[in-house]
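Box 3.1 — From sequence to structure: Ion channel protein
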Amino acid sequence: MALALPALLIGVGASLLLLGVSTVAEALQKAVWDRLPHALGIGGEPAWWTFLILTLAGAAVGLTVAKVPGRAGHDPATEGLVAPPIPARVVPSLLLATVLTLAGGVSLGPENPITAVNVALAFALGTRFLPAAPGEAWVGIAAAGTIGALFGTPVAAALILSETAMGGPGTPLWDRLFAPLIAAGAGALTTVALAAPTLSVDVPGYRGFELVDLVSGSVIALVACTLGLLLVYAFPHVHSVFHRLPGPVVGLAAGGAVLGVLGAVGGRITLFKGLDEMKTLTGHASSHSAGGLLLIIVVKLAAILVAASCGFRGGRIFPAVFTGLAIGLLANRLVDAVPVSLAIGSGVLGLLVALTRQGWLSLFMAVAVVTDIKLLPLLCVVTLPAWLLATGRPEMLIKEG
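Predicted structure (token representation):
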């Protein structure tokens, strides 16, 4: 009862902060990528403009990390979605770096930095005004409120937090999740009421189970998981290369330049966090050849790897979902007998298992993207071979020290 009202307020606040940052980033994105080229008389989408903007975005984030008080928090390569609280004084610089990352076209989403900001604020306020509550309670409540706001449902928060160690070992799971679920529900309702977000794409519904679907879904998930593991194994080496450069300004500008080259090769569809782009890709899938889809997949995977390695502030979930969707579309193009909803769900599932190592999150996102509950039992089984491939492998994290 003591945590119920604070949890409600934290959930609403988490959503409002997410929507505020997203609104500012989208306004800046439109100004830089649409209005400014038009004002300068630049027609089309020239490759040099993509390269220039991403390089400048890298330099701007690098200056934020190097010069702004708080230094935009810890190296994002060292932390997962829910991390220990950062000092509240770091929040302004982290928000600035996040806005610049999102607006600059970098292949990262807002989930990690927004969660870190909400956890920092909730922890600072909660431990001051309600010190009797354990500090970990504020972390769980703020993380749940942010996850609910991000995905528009408290179910995602409950699934993700069920995989973390919260509360005493003898406390029932529902009791441990009670306050976080209030925050997640409040965050989700606020986001839905103000922005009506949707993760789903418009694809034909699943025709119904056939035995061959177990094979095709498992193969697609395993291929996606294998591609994700290639990123995982390359991650420490690419991270080391960028962090050998002299300072964050040079490192992030170099990362932005590489992303600019990738964006010029893959086109605008391979830029940004991927939430809007996956709807565009699905709606125009017929206009892309198998080779074109393969190019998008390769470019986006490389962009995720570079963006996560060089220090841009952002999360990998949304761009990974876009890439998993592209893998599914390619599988359906190569073997059109595979239902497109199954192919997309399996692609998203396999890639997220490799990159996040969170089974519930991967399963939830796979179903949420295709919005067909008939696929849930099948995807539960398809998860198993991908999980067996990924489990015991290194995670996409850099261990400090």
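Summary of the box: The CA atoms of residues 95 and 113 lie 7 Å apart.
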